[in-house]
Amino acid sequence: MGYGTAEARQALSLSRNDVSKAVDLLHQGDPSNPSTSAATSSNKTKKDKSEKMKRKKEREEAFARLSSSIAADDDDNLNSSLAEEEEVLAQYQSLL
Fold first, then answer.
1. pTM for the complete prediction?
2. CA-to-CA distance for 95 and 86, rounded, in angstroms?
3. How many domains does the chain have?
4. 19-51 residue pLDDT tens
């Protein structure tokens, strides 16, 4: 087919050893496939990396907000009776 060993191996790796999918990747010019143009591939790779970094940062910020809003010593719910828990649950459901 005219593809190098490294390209074929990468396509197989990306397709989890599914030969049919690997051939499709090679024919389609997948951006992570080294047989595509270097400029297009590197631009898409940089874009993908920046998007991944952005999502990671957003997740970390969300986790930090969540962690800060939950006090470590906040055990109020452990002392609640079933009736009180039921009331809190009903209030919560009314907000949905």
1. 0.33
2. 14
3. 1
4. 888 888 888 875 454 555 444 455 677 788 888
